[in-house]
Amino acid sequence: MSVNFDVTETLDVKGASCPMPVVKTKSAVDDLDEGDVLEVVATDSGSMSDLDGWASGTDGVEMLDQVDEGDVYRHYVRKTE
Amino acid sequence: MSTDTPDDAAATAPDGADEAPSRAELAARVDELEAQLSESTADDGAKKMSIIATKGTLDMAYPPLILASTAAAFGYEVTVFHTFWGLDILHEERSSDLKLSSVGNPNMPVPNVVGALPGMDRVTTSMMQKRIDDNDTATIEELIETSLDMGVEFQACQMTIELMGYDEDDFYDGVRTGVGAATAIQDMAEADIQLLI
After folding, report:
1. Are A21 and A40 in contact (CB under 8 A)?
2. Three-class SS of residue B195?
3. To 5 degrees, how large is the angle CA A50–CA A54–CA A55?
């Protein structure tokens, strides 16, 4: 998938496990402005499903891309409102 | 039996056709139902979750806290009503010392008869605690603080506070005391998700 966007900020949640990647992503997104893109870097393999589910079940955010790099999972979330 | 019955014949009610509502009556009924629907969904828009937490063992303290903080991340207004042993989760001193027992849990690597020996709860608890540390799983205190930051309302049941001999000041700052079953029922009635844990 190739989507064009600039990362506004990066959130490092490496080492953290459920529910912290989702909870910390939510808090980080709250501090952003509309249109900003947050990169979330996690080591929890459950974050692939959890963050995608969170993004689709939550108003005002959009999951742009998720990249599985084997030992690290990168998620790109845009704040839409 | 013929299958090519004319449409108008099939659409006509065989008996009691005079009891069928008219088009105008149906339209009026639809308007009425639509009005009711918009009234009941127009509430205040926020989704709500209500959890009743009744257990105070280390393993059973996690599910209500994980679900509460995650639901808050989804934008839910969350209340967690703690009663009986569930109070220990909110008890500042006791929450850092929740125990895990292997008795009654055949999945634990300790036979029940051994698990019942004095001191075994300490062993199983420290086994679990080590796993929590090794996996960087959030601690109970961390989850409570995070949930409070995210706006989760923790309630401590007044009747059981007194039953257990606790004091209202024993709980984390921000915990709501002086509430009872009626408050819990009210929250559950308004909630989209209700859980008893």
Report:
1. yes
2. strand
3. 120
Residues B74, A27: C-beta atoms closer than 8 Å = no
Mean pLDDT value across chain B:
86
Q: Which CATH superfamily is domain B48-100+139-196 in?
A: DsrEFH-like (3.40.1260.10)
Query: CB neighbours of A3 closer than 8 A, spacing ≥ 6?
Result: A64, A65, A76
d(CA B11, CA B18): 14
C-alpha span between B152 and B71 (Å, rounded): 9
Residues in chain A within 8 Å Cβ distance of B69: 19, 23
In this prediction the ipTM stands at 0.77
Q: Report the alpha-carbon distance of residue A32 to residue A18 in Å, rounded.
A: 23
What pTM did the predictor assign?
0.75
Contacts of B149 in chain A (CB under 8 A): 27
Report residue B147's pLDDT band, with 50, 70 and 90 as the boundaries: very high
Of residues A23, A25, A59, nearest to B146 (C-beta): A23
Comparing A63-67, B101-105, B128-132, the range with the smallest average pLDDT is B101-105
